[in-house]
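job 3f2a | input accepted
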Amino acid sequence: MKSEIITVQQMFQDRRQYRVPFYQRTYVWNKEDQWERLWSDIQDKASERLAGNQPVPHFLGAVVLEPQPVNSVLDIGKFSIIDGQQRLTTLQYLLAALSMTLSLSEETGILSLVENCRWNSNPETMKNPDIDVFKLWPTFRDRDTYKIAVSIKKINEFSDKFTDIFRKVNKSKKNSSMGLLAVEAILYFYSQIVEWIKREESNSRLILIAITEAILTDIKLVSITLGEEDDAQVIFETLNGHGAQLHATDLIRNYIFMQADRELGSASKLYDSLWLPFEDDFWKEEQTRGRLKRPRLDWFMQTILQVEFREEIDISRLYSGYQRFAKTKSATDQLVMLNTYAAYYKDLILGIGCKPIERFGRRIKVWDASTTHALALLICTSGLSDEEQNRIFDWVVSYLVRRAICGLTSKNYNRVFNQQVKRISSFPVTVDSIYADLSALEGKAARWPRDDEFQKEWTEAVIYEERLKSIKIKSIFIELEMAMRSSRTEESDLLKVEQLDIEHILPTSWFECWALSDGTFVKKDEIDSLNSDSPRLMLILKREKAKNLMGNLTLLNNGVNRSLQNSFFNKKRDAMFRESNLHLNRDLMIKNHWNESEIDARGQMLFSFAKEIWNGPEGTSEKSWFVEAALAEEEKKSNKITASKTLETEYSLINAWVVKNVAFPRNTEFRANHKGQVYRAIVGEGALVLSDGKEFSSPSSAARHITGTEVNGWSFWECKLPGESVWQVMGALRKGGK
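job 3f2a | predicted structure (738 res):
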């Protein structure tokens, strides 16, 4: 970054052009807020010069410039105005007014200094002379008025050139909204100069010289020119923290159309045909991911860059990432590509059709699954058939839903799905490859639950509200309902979630209306009086858990749901018979009673559909899940369980390497550092296997093989259990830490 204090003459005298980016607002400075103060400062500096004094410079503020690449000897130096376009535009209007007064006074020598700050010389050597002659090139919304206004040489030409605008202004008595600020600014400054000259007509030449010197040399700016490593987005946001927020896509839009201007001469048609769709409210809508809130267009740009680069893209460095991507592409090619991806992305987000990506978008809408978007775009542009795409998308949805049901974290999804995107850069995407990769994931942070884990959590865990909010439960039951309907069912249309509520068959407040399994009713104030080991309390707690199990939940129309509330089962059943045609509720209509056994049976029945809808990997769950499940059971019995006791009891059913009554599961990793070299080993079938293939029954014999001396292997080795990320000294797992 280069920073310097320069005069107006130094800012404009070189053969260069300052271009106002597309993302910046139109010209908005006006007489009351800016022009009058600027003219007052100029008049003060000029008056000091007339009095024979050297004025103290007046600082107008800072301008931040981003150099644009020069690709031809016919290109002039061009700079994108990151900040300060209102100042520079006002100075051009001021210089235009000064030029007209100097022309009337026939001050040709001074006039040439001013004209050199308004126009770039030698248009015959320019690639686009109609544009490149201007020292400043405004945003396209100001462009037509600007070109005419600054080119006028005589004051009476304004009424001829802007007849229609003057007529509209006079009729509406408005000006700022009519695109007339350029004309107003020039006329204002012109009138101030002329009035001063008329007041002191005998001194008019000296006044014009003093005004010219005040403008060109006494007004100064801080010019900040960015280097290649500087991020224009970050700098603009820092300088304009209290103004309108600048998004990365504003800079990207400017980047594209600056390039389009160089390549095509005029970017207006390209803007109308290929960029204007991105100005739609759909793309401007703010979306929150984690703690970040950005317009949907920013997230879209991040997604397509991840697709193109096959790597993770930091949203805070989006602009620089796009520059890297677009370096070898024309502006037209960039826009065509953006529009191609945009069509797929919109299908994904809206999810209202039958194409594979629309179906996928509809299914993941409630699952906060934006981390899958790049993979989804890759799949839908891969050339795979619709059937193959649907199968892959089914695997991904299953991965998300099974993990959610099992209470597993979603924090690692960014890494999981980015790994899939990276893999596709080296290997072609296929149904089998996605299935194999997801199936191979291990550990609590990444695994794809097998049927045994999925079934246990589905039927036994309290999922409603504890693990999943109502909207996600609704989504699950919508898919269950659709799976229960055969192809011959008349009601085959998709259900509308907003018209349905989750209904607890056994109500959440069941005490007065629903007897326990022993036939007795419970009073709310009764629970506090029961002993903790009371059989009656156990029945109550069992009932309380059962009410939020999956087997006790269903869908009902909003009105029916509210009317039933905490009613007796028979009343609920009869209302379902009258009002509900959902297949979810058909088995309930023939029930005579509803209790914990019925809830369990219905949970199992629903699971038979769930495992097919969200079909998962083959086989039984990995060892780490057995450990987690067993540990959970042990924790219920005692809070004093130790790591060694866990290993002794929970791995007994698994083929492990057992040493000193401590069991290390297969694939436990080991490492040791000896004389600066790292040695590694892994648990095979009942033994520790070194990297050279040798197997050992004890850690000390393995350590002795490496060191050649007697070594305590329990302190020599560090180990890391499958699915864990922390290394610990092997001896820490022995009782007492010995």
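job 3f2a | Residues 458-613 form one domain.
job 3f2a | closed
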